[in-house]
Each structure stands twice: as C-alpha cells, then as structure tokens.
Design a protein that fits this description.
Blueprint: H1 13-28, E1 37-41, E2 46-50, E3 64-68, H2 87-95, E4 101-105, E5 137-138, H3 141-146, H4 159-168, E6 181-184, E7 188-193, H5 196-220, H6 231-240, H7 248-257
Parallel strand pairs: 5-6
Antiparallel strand pairs: 1-2, 1-4, 2-3, 4-7, 6-7
GO molecular function, one term: aldehyde-lyase activity
Domain Class II aldolase/adducin N-terminal: 17-214
Keywords: Lyase, Metal-binding
C-alpha cells in the first residue's frame, strides 16, 4: 500500500521557515545559485515552492506559493510566475506519494558524471551510501527521438518530460522511488527525501561524493583503479548515516542564520 504524505495543510510557520532556511542552506553549500530549486509537499494534492526568484533571496511569506501535483500549475489563479521546471517536482510527487521533498540542482561537481558513461556516479564515501552502485542518468534525448518537434533545450518544462524524469528514479516500496537521486544529462540532478532535511542532506552528500570520486580518478589515472562501494557496503552505509539529517541540520541552520545574505522573515 502506497505511503501517504505526512505533511498536511494548513500550512504552518514552522514548515515555511524550514523551507526558506532550506533554500538558503542549498545555496550555502553551492547546490543552487540563481538557478535550481527546492519544494516540499504540503498535502497529497499540492506542494510548495518559491516564486520565480533566486533561492538565496527567498525571505517572505509572499515569496511562497502552492502548486498542484496533478499538473504543476498554481493552486490560485493569481499565482505569479513560477519556475519553468516545476514539473520536475509535480511529477515526482505524482509518481511517488511517499516523497515529501525534492531538490533540483545544477551542481558543477555532479554534472560531469551525467556525461561520462564510463565513470558513473556511485557511492565511494561513507556519508553517501544512499547513492548505491550506479546512479541512473536520465537522458532527454530519449524523448526527443520520440518527438523530433520538441525543443531540445535539455529542460523539463512540461508534465511529459517531468514524468519521463520521474520514471528514471524507478519504483521502490511504500510509495518511494528505488533510487534517491537521478542525474540529468548535461543539466544537473534531482534528489528526493521524506523530509526537507533528508532531501537537502542527500543533495549535499551527493555533491561531496562526486568531488571525492573526481579527485580519486585524478590520483588513480583510470576508473578501474578507483575503489568504490559494493552493493552491500552502499546499502549498509545508506542505512547507517544521515538518518533524518538530525546531526548536520542544526549546524547548517546556524551557518545561514548567522550570514546576513540570508533573510528569513517568517
């Protein structure tokens, strides 16, 4: 039986503050800049995102809007311009009712692994066992070949492309995807979690794992000389670390709350 979202309306200030802080934490760790985004499910039918703006600048209740899981459109008729790739979020929530938060990042540490099939992104670091032994890469060319009339801008600007990306995560158990992360060829990655904290923690450690793997390759000279995790090691490490992001979250929160760039007026 599919797991239902544990985050319910009405919206409360605690959730909104956490969302704003989450946007700031992603920027602090280099996972978003003017681009990239965070969302959180607020009911079975809707999710919250900021309006079309740079995530580190999100600060006020007026910056936050609800969108429909069904089609990615605004819940209210007066919803301002939103992110063109919000369909990444709507289609992941639609496909996986157990997912409560989604991150989309253009991390420059991770993008190279989306275009290097001979060196897939895989867990090599005890904090990133959740990555497993071969992170899937979603290639929009699969959809372009089906419909040559599509604009080939590598973006996810409609529900069809969003559904194709969501499918790349694979069906798991209890309404969750099989994979927590999927790369997007020449673009970035999508990361899921059962909470804002978990989605952000996985995103942070995905980028760290990518940096370590690149450094190891530079030292070793060839991919076969880089020692990565076995399936068992990845599975066990994934269960043993960053559970709920309980330990790093207070630190990350303190880092952004003490930085005057980041404002949270909720």
């Amino acid at each position: 039986m599919a797991q239902k979202s544990q985050i319910k309306e009405p919206l409360n200030d605690e959730l909104l503050r956490k969302y704003v802080n989450g946007c700031h934490i992603l920027h602090y760790h280099g996972l978003v800049d003017a681009y990239g985004h965070l969302s959180v499910r607020v009911s079975d039918d809707s999710f919250l995102m900021c309006r079309y703006m740079a995530p580190p600048m999100v600060a006020n209740r007026e910056d936050l809007w609800l969108y429909k899981v069904a089609d990615g459109e605004g819940v209210k008729a007066d919803t301002p311009r939103g992110f063109s790739e919000r369909y990444i979020h709507s289609e992941v929530y639609k496909a996986y009712p157990g997912v409560n938060a989604v991150v989309h990042s253009h991390s420059l540490d991770v993008v190279p692994f989306s275009i290097s099939p001979k060196l897939p992104l895989r867990a090599c670091f005890h904090m990133s066992g959740f990555l497993g032994t071969n992170v899937p890469v979603w290639d929009p060319a699969t959809e372009y070949k089906k419909d040559p009339t599509l604009v080939q801008h590598m973006l996810v600007r409609d529900t069809k492309m969003g559904a194709s990306l969501a499918k790349a995560l694979g069906a798991g158990q209890d309404g969750l995807p099989k994979e927590h992360v999927a790369l997007m060829r020449g673009h970035g990655f999508v990361c899921t979690g059962t909470s804002i904290e978990m989605a952000i923690a996985r995103s942070v450690y995905t980028a760290q794992n990518a940096r370590i793997l690149k450094d190891a390759l530079a030292i070793a000279g060839k991919s076969e000389d880089v020692v990565v995790f076995s399936e068992q090691e990845a599975a066990d490490a994934g269960r043993s670390t960053i559970s709920g992001a309980v330990k790093p979250w207070p630190l990350w929160l303190a880092e952004v709350e003490s930085n005057p760039l980041y404002q949270n007026h909720i």
